[in-house]
Amino acid sequence: MKKTIIKRLAVALFIIAPLAACGSSSEPAEEHGEEGEPAKGPHNGRLLKDGDFAVEMTIFEDGVPPQFRVYPTKDGKPVDAKTVQLTVTLKRLGGEVNTFPFKAEKDYLTGQGVVEEPHSFDVEVVAVESGKRHVWRYASPEGRTRITADAAKAGGIEIETVGPATIGETRELYGTVQLATTARSEIRGQFPGRIVSVTKQVGDTVKRGQLLARIESSESLQVYPVYSTVSGVVAERNGNPGDVTFDRALYVITDPAQTTVVFNIFPKDLGAIQPGMAVQIETMEGTAIAATRLGQYLPDGNAEAGTALVRASVPNRGGRLRPGMALRGRVTINAVQVPLAVRTEALQRFRDFTVVFANYGQDYEVRMLELGRKSPEWTEVLSGIKPGTPYAAKGAFLIRADIEKSGASHDH
């Protein structure tokens, strides 16, 4: 099935064809070499020609942050860089625009600014030499692909937004569902006497104010009714018609909506897990149940397991919890709130970088990240992506595979 998904994603790969644009007096065309690849200059950069004038575009990053170096030539011979005025404009996915003026140095012009990763953009080059204006436009995608919405859904790709998160160490707790101490009510007759009738059986649902029994008082011989003081389910009925009541409870009614989970806390966790901490409760299979907080440690522990016990209230509004049901809790200790984080499972390798894939409609593109603290769920981002950027939180490995097949290279 994975092969089928990857094949489907490969079909949706993003291709941007280089564009030629008009100069002031002609339409300069980008030169191409073998197999349609852009023509290269002597410095292994992209060669752009307009008549006898040309510029070779390179990005230099040997011991310095990435910067443009552009070599102008005329009839294949170097031109004094001081005689050329140059501006380069980059348009990136998401609407960001970077503009670079240039300064002459030796036989080349140096862009005044850092060309941030990824080096993926639509490029406009404007050069003025000997009073003549030359303009070239071309696309230079890197680490980018296009995947249709249907293919992304089939591949399990899910999108989230970069933003703040709580990062810490996760401890797992195991416990069982119990009824809350407030969930049990005992219903008694007001006076001792003989039970004339009962209306409810064990397991029946009752409403507050419903008639439960009639009792003939031993003192007055008058028959009086017994009504339920709570709503819930009959857990016990301790009398039948003809029986004589004394001070025992005639009915025990429980409220199944009032449940708690009692967690076992092992000795190694006693110093770290404290009352009041947030706990995420889920089934043993990982289905989320509720988010709540730990109560106080119970006076008695679990002697057989050698653990302390702590209770967490979990309202059973949907009726899915049953006493005795095993549940799991997750508690984050040493928690730190960070302003920017991504899902840890979203991280992938691209070239020498750790990346996520930013999402813009059907387009996905790498974002090289500098990372901080890390947990199994979240990883702090120090730089490389802006707050609020949508990214592939799940299925990122399929996007990486599609980009690798597309051959979107680091072309300088």
Summarize the structure.
Helix content is 7%, strand content 48%. The protein has helices at residues 2-11, 149-154, 396-406, and strands spanning 46-50, 53-60, 67-74, 77-78, 84-91, 97-105, 108-111, 121-129, 132-140, 144-146, 158-161, 163-179, 184-187, 193-198, 205-206, 211-217, 223-227, 232-237, 244-245, 251-254, 259-265, 278-283, 288-293, 308-313, 326-343, 348-350, 353-360, 363-368, 370-374, 378-383, 390-394. The strands form 6 sheets. Strands 1, 2, 3, 4, 5, 6, 7, 8 and 9 form a 9-stranded antiparallel sheet that branches. Strands 12, 21, 22, 23, 24, 25, 29 and 30 form an 8-stranded antiparallel sheet that branches. The chain has a 4-stranded antiparallel sheet with strand order 10-28-27-26, with helices on one face.
Can you tell me about this structure?
This protein has 412 residues and is mainly beta. Among the domains are: 19-140, Immunoglobulin-like (Sandwich); 183-254, Beta Barrel (OB fold (Dihydrolipoamide Acetyltransferase, E2P)). The protein is built from three helices and 31 strands. Strands 1, 2, 3, 4, 5, 6, 7, 8 and 9 form a nine-stranded antiparallel β-sheet that branches. Strand 3 (67-74) and strand 4 (77-78) form a beta hairpin.
Strand proportion, as a percent range, falls in over 45%
The CATH class of the domain at 19-140 is identified as Mainly Beta
Q: Can you tell me the CATH superfamily of the domain at 19-140? A: Domain of unknown function DUF4426
CATH architecture of the domain at 19-140: Sandwich
CATH-derived topology of the domain at 19-140 = Immunoglobulin-like
Distance between the termini: 37 Å
Assembly state (oligomeric): single chain
Give the uncertain stretches in residue-range form: 1-27
Mean pLDDT: 89
Give the C-alpha Rg. Answer: 36 Å
- Look at the helices and sheets and give the structural class: mainly beta
The tally of strands reads 31
Largest sheet geometry: 9 strands, antiparallel
Number of helices: 3
Helix content: under 10%
CA-based shape: rod-shaped
